[in-house]
Amino acid sequence: MATFKEFRNNVKPNWCPGCGDFSIQAAIQRAAANVGLEPEQLAVISGIGCSGRISGYINAYGLHGIHGRALPIAQGVKLANRELTVIASGGDGDGFAIGMGHTVHAIRRNLNITYIVMDNQIYGLTKGQTSPRSAEGFKTKSTPEGSIESTLSPLEIAMSAGATFVAQSFSSDLKQLTNLIEEGIKHEGFSLINVFSPCVTFNKINTYDWFKENIVNLEQFPEYDPSNRMAAMNKIMETEGMLTGLIYQNKQRKSYEDLITGFQPESLSKQDLTLSEADFNKL
Ligand code: SF4
Ligand code: MG
Q1: Residue 67: inside a domain, yes or no?
Q2: Nearest residue CA, atom 1 of ligand 1?
Q3: pLDDT digit string, tens, across residues 120-163
Q4: 171 CB under 6 A from ligand 1?
Q5: How far apart are the first and last CA of the chain?
Q6: If you average pLDDT over every residue of the chain, what do you get?
Q7: 33 lines ligand 1 (CB under 6 A)
Q8: Kind and range of the H or E element at 247?
Q9: Which domain of life is it from (predicted)?
């Protein structure tokens, strides 16, 4: 069985020292090892942004896609080979701005993939512009007088789009984050894990200390029932989206792959999925 170190390749991450994304990479590697995967059973598909580099740093199948398009690619990978464990990842700009149309429909489609958003509430790669996750009044070079747009709530959007697994974590809480990624991988459907991941270079407001002061860990509420959709929505709104832990899980709804006609393993032979050389030459 592969250890978490075997999910690391020899490419040195070029994230800034202190970036939250390092811990997210470590958590993905640990979770993959803990659920018993081998590197060849995992595909990590990413979008564009600092976060998007992650697919190049993990020893597994990987594809660094185009901006906002990690999810269409990840869904295609999963449909082409449902034996693979597929993780899609990207930043808040990637998934909740240009890619938001894909995010909402991937959530309601409910393929069995895990989507990890590295949410630093800013655009990091392009040197610090306001993102849909930035707070109202947030000042950057793109909003020098402060953002006048409301802050997008990915958790509320996921819930209203019919998500079957919604979780949130903080890059500094490696234990919780690893555990949530494990649960997300094991979940039979689409799992959204939004992770607060501080951008130490450009976001001087939402710092590690700021998150520590503002996060509400669901462990404080032992009576909380993540299968209760209404309770989940209420808790998200009560905490203004700052809660961490497993917020909602619906284990009843089947995944897309399990429902789609003609796509059951018994109706597909290896031959169905393999293009012959003669067919390829006709394309
Ligand atoms: Fe991380 Fe921000 Fe540096 Fe990008 S710019 S690597 S998000 S700290
Ligand atoms: Mg970002």
Answers
A1: yes
A2: 19
A3: 999 999 999 999 999 999 999 999 999 999 999 999 999 999 99
A4: no
A5: 41
A6: 95
A7: no
A8: strand 243-249
A9: Bacteria
pLDDT tens digits for 61-102?
A: 999 999 999 999 999 999 999 999 999 999 999 999 999 999
Decide whether any atom of ligand 1 lies within 6 Å of the 16 Cβ: yes
Give the contacts of 49 (CB within 8 A, at least 6 positions apart).
67, 90, 91, 93, 94, 118, 123, 124, 125
Task: Give the distance (Å) from ligand 1 centre to CA of residue 272.
Answer: 43
Instruction: Domain of residue 57: give its range.
Output: 16-258
State the CATH number of the domain containing residue 138: 3.40.50.970
- Number of domains present in the structure of the chain: 1
For residue 14, which ligand has an atom nearest its CA? 1
Q: Which of 21, 46, 134 should be mutated for ligand 1, with most atoms under 8 A from CB?
A: 21
Q: Is the CB of 200 inside a 6 Å radius of any atom of ligand 1?
A: yes
CA 204 to centroid of ligand 1, rounded, Å: 12
Contacts of 15 (CB under 8 A, 6+ apart): 21, 22, 50, 53
Q: Of all atoms in ligand 1, which is nearest to the CA of residue 16?
A: 3
What mean pLDDT do residues 183-194 have? 98
Give the pLDDT of residue 282.
75
**What pLDDT sits at residue 272?**
58
- Please work out whether the CB of residue 54 comes within 6 Å of at least one atom of ligand 1: no
Answer whether residue 164 is part of any domain: yes
In a domain, 228, yes or no: yes
Mutation to probe ligand 1, out of 46, 89, 120, 123 (largest number of atoms < 8 A from CB): 120
Q: Is residue 224 part of a domain?
A: yes
**pLDDT value at residue 260:** 86
